[in-house]
Amino acid sequence: MLDSSKIQYPPLQLLQTWVWMMIESDNPELQDKGRDNLISAFGSLAKANEYLVETNK
Questions:
Q1: CB of 21 closer than 8 Å to CB of 33
Q2: How far is it, in rounded angstroms, from Cα 54 to Cα 48?
Q3: d(C-alpha 2, C-alpha 25), whole Å
Q4: Distance (Å, rounded) from C-alpha 19 to C-alpha 42?
Q5: Around 36, how many Cα atoms within 13 Å sit in the side-chain half-sphere?
Q6: Considering Cα of 1, then 53, then 29, then 13, what sign does the dihedral take?
Q7: Spatial CB neighbours of 46, under 8 Å, sequence gap ≥ 6
Q8: Greatest Cα-to-Cα distance within the chain, rounded to the nearest angstrom
Q9: Are the C-beta atoms of 19 and 39 separated by less than 8 Å?
Q10: pTM
Q11: Each residue of 20-31: pLDDT tens digit?
């Protein structure tokens, strides 16, 4: 049975792709999409950043 009390975040590789889209892409539409995806998954870029920092420790 799945533990519904634990928050499920997207896989790390997908998060890294969204960060790449937001930071490295020269395409403004890709930058916006990457940012929007992170905000949708975490509620804010700050929370996404906290999660990525904790995951990479």
A1: yes
A2: 10
A3: 36
A4: 13
A5: 6
A6: negative
A7: none
A8: 43
A9: no
A10: 0.83
A11: 999 999 999 999
